[in-house]
Write a structure and sequence with these properties.
- The complex is a heterodimer of chains A (about 200) and B (about 475).
- Chain A contains eleven helices and four strands, in the order H-E-H-E-E-H-H-H-E-H-H-H-H-H-H.
- Chain A has two domains: about 150 residues, Potassium Channel Kv1.1, Chain A; about 35 residues.
- In chain A, about 55% of the residues lie in helices and about 5% in strands.
- With about 200 residues, chain A is an alpha/beta fold.
- The longest helix of chain A is centred in the last third of the chain and has 31 residues.
- Chain B is of the alpha/beta class and about 475 residues long.
- Chain B contains 20 helices and 14 strands.
- The longest helix of chain B is centred in the first third of the chain and has 23 residues.
- Classes of the chains: A alpha/beta (about 200), B alpha/beta (about 475).
- At the A-B interface, helix 7, helix 8, helix 9 and helix 10 of A face helix 8, helix 9, helix 10, helix 11 and helix 12 of B.
- Chain A: Belongs to the SKP1 family.
Chain lengths: ~200, ~475
């Protein structure tokens, strides 16, 4: 975990200096910086478009500030970029809307996703936001696998789902919370009517 | 790890108390602890000392502190104590090589791993009560320990939103659901209203769905099969349910009611698409044995749903009564194939069936030829089959009218490709020869229909086969 606290994280340390390839600097919303190779960025449609539009040279990358990714924190972004580096150069699956294919979770991804649900959902959110198709697929598969063979009551526990009764109770509570105000307005309206005024109109 | 507990005597004591609450005798608790944490952290006398204290309702060293009537309250009232219990559980499962196992067997990781955590959490709930710690909270701490972060005082940033399943965008929810099998979908849609609505609006492509009444040992049972997965509801005294993933589960209602509830839940999705729907049940006479009226129940279930999108409807061992009742609930046009296994002796294929859109718009009709008992059934006039692209049907006998009809109507149908007709009585070849005006060489005759195509007619003792061929 010490790596995470370091100011700059090289996700793919070994490869970068040797091949002298292009890489970019990104910054999470909690100001952690990441260096990510050009090829890895291609896994993310959002980031790929962004860097294409920016047209940075190697000097620009060093001299200009890191590209800020406002709504993802460092812990999540680290996982995202680790995944991208591992899977760089791989073909991006295309969803042609036909019968869904069976998704397999490779060992690397399984280890990467040995995380609690809170972080897993953040990772999914990030994969969706950055449009990383295959990362989204495997992470969604992991969430789906948690449902395997469970009863409705167990599923509510795993995914923190409200039961219908709780849902109803919450709605009722919300309504009750609103009611007094509604009543006040009504009373005021009645009062004014009684006074013969039509100041409401 | 041992170091951490040595330096944190309270956490250590919480671990011991956790063992005490789970009714470990002192010597077992000591052995357990040494195996899990290490040999040099505590000695057996200390364990004995603290267990005696716990028995008196004392957790602290100071005597003047309040006594606990229920030692479990130590955990219920102190989140750090509970975290220590999770830590101990983590160490225990690590010791049992399970953590290592997750890493070495990647395919089993999510499946086994996720369920393993779930059961550990269940164990903690069983000891302290349901609401002592939510599963996500437990999971959060477990994974912290897993990643080597043992700091029990860590506080999650409460300002930051903790994402849950229902917070996910629609496109993500769809992606997740794509990976959820039918049985789990049924369970998920029973959790809460938002998920139920969502699941019922998602397209679901299923290969084969089979509904089968069968015997489990000598007891009646219902089996659903979706592809490789199946779920069995049987009446072995306690109405048990079992599917490939879950343990046997006792049901509170009769086995067949539970089966139909689940069946309804699956078919009520208007966007369900099935390649094959197989219905396999015995005759109405078996109803008493199964304890319910199979066809009536199926009809009730189907009634509650939209017309089903089924490509191929297969009746195994069925009656025309069943066909008549079930066919209307399948979407005409989408249904291309009707397959009937075995019709009962003297069963009559009703005119009502032939009048249905489902019948008229289907392209293929198949009956099994292996058993001749059904041949005595009256399957109606050959005319009712002329709209099919392909069909195979049993008849009593081949009459001159049949042959004429075939020649004049069937052979003029642009859709017709091939058929196979079998008969109870041997075929009189001279009738056919007269009608087609040619003799059969090697039991085969060619009947030209255009410059490029002809029908090849093969005949056997009790069977004729016709197929469209190119010149």
């Amino acid at each position: 975990m010490s790596v995470e606290n370091a100011p700059v994280v090289d996700v793919d340390e070994a490869a970068i200096p040797v091949e002298k390839k292009m890489y970019y600097r990104f910054e999470s919303n909690d100001k952690k910086e990441f260096r990510v190779s050009e090829l890895a960025i291609q896994q993310s449609e959002t980031l790929n478009r962004l860097v294409e539009a920016m047209g940075y040279t190697s000097e620009d990358v060093e001299n200009k500030p890191a590209i800020a990714i406002e709504n993802i924190d460092g812990k999540t972004l680290k996982l995202v970029f680790q995944w991208c580096e591992h899977h760089k150069g791989e073909a991006i699956p295309v969803d042609d809307g036909s019968v869904p294919k069976i998704v397999e979770i490779p060992e690397f991804d399984a280890k990467l996703m040995d995380i609690d649900n809170g972080l897993l959902f953040k990772l999914i959110w990030a994969a969706d936001y950055l449009n990383i198709v295959q990362l989204l697929n495997v992470s969604c598969k992991k969430v789906a696998n948690m449902a395997q063979g469970k009863t409705p009551a167990q599923l509510r526990r795993v995914y923190l789902l409200p039961s219908d009764e709780e849902d109803e109770a919450a709605k009722r509570a919300a309504q009750e919370a609103q009611d007094p105000r509604a009543r006040e307005v009504e009373e005021e309206f009645e009062e004014r009517k009684r006074q013969g005024g039509n100041s409401f109109f | 790890m041992a170091e951490y507990l040595k330096n944190n005597p309270i956490a250590l004591r919480h671990c011991l108390l956790f063992l005490y609450i789970r009714n470990y005798p002192v010597d077992d608790a000591y052995k357990q602890f040494c195996k899990t944490v290490g040999d040099d952290v505590i000695d057996e006398q200390d364990v004995q000392f603290w267990f005696n204290r716990f028995r008196q309702g004392v957790f602290d060293r100071e005597e003047d502190k309040e006594l606990w009537t229920d030692m479990r309250d130590v955990f219920r009232s102190d989140k750090y104590a509970l975290r220590a219990a999770v830590l101990y559980q983590y160490l225990q499962s690590k010791h049992e090589n399970l953590v290592y196992f997750w890493h070495s067997q990647c395919i089993l990781v999510e499946r086994f791993g996720a369920n393993h955590l779930f059961f550990i959490h269940l164990g903690i709930c069983n000891v302290f009560g349901e609401d002592v710690m939510t599963f996500p909270e437990f999971q959060f701490w477990f994974y912290r320990f897993f990643n080597g972060e043992f700091d029990l005082d860590f506080e999650r940033d409460t300002d930051k939103k903790i994402y849950e399943l229902l917070d996910m965008p629609l496109v993500v929810m769809k992606n997740i659901l794509k990976n959820v099998n039918v049985f789990d979908r049924v369970a998920l849609s029973q959790t809460c209203q938002p998920l139920r609505q969502f699941i019922q609006n998602q397209k679901l492509f299923l290969g084969t769905l089979e509904f089968k009444c069968e015997l489990m040992g000598r007891l009646p049972a219902i089996r659903f099969t979706f592809g490789k997965m199946s779920s069995v509801y049987s009446k072995d005294g306690s109405n048990r349910m079992k599917n490939s993933d879950t343990e046997n589960r006792d049901l509170d209602v009769p086995y067949w009611k539970e089966a139909f509830l689940d069946f309804k839940e699956v078919i009520r999705n208007p966007k369900l698409y099935l390649d094959e729907l197989i219905l396999a049940f015995r005759s109405e006479e078996d109803d008493e044995f199964y304890g319910f009226d199979v066809i009536d129940q199926l009809e009730t279930a189907l009634k509650s749903a939209h017309q089903l999108n089924v490509k191929k409807l297969i009746f195994k061992k069925s009656s025309t009564g069943a066909i008549l009742k079930i066919l209307p609930y399948v979407k005409p046009g989408y249904l291309t194939t009707i397959e009937i296994g075995l019709l009962f002796y003297k069963d009559v294929m009703s005119e009502e069936v032939f009048g249905m859109e489902q019948w008229k718009q289907a392209k293929y009709f198949v009956t099994r030829e292996s058993d001749y008992t059904y041949n005595s059934c009256t399957i109606g006039s050959l005319r009712h089959f002329f709209h099919f692209k392909e069909f195979s049907v049993p008849f009593k006998e081949l009459t001159v009218e049949n042959v004429r009809e075939m020649k004049e109507v069937l052979f003029k149908s642009p859709d017709f490709e091939k058929c196979s007709l079998s008969f109870m009585r041997a075929i009189d070849t001279s009738t056919i020869e007269r009608e087609f005006g040619s003799t059969f060489a090697k039991n085969t005759c060619h009947y030209p229909i255009s410059n490029t195509e002809y029908f090849e007619i093969k005949f056997f003792v009790r069977k004729i086969e016709v197929s469209r061929k190119k010149m």
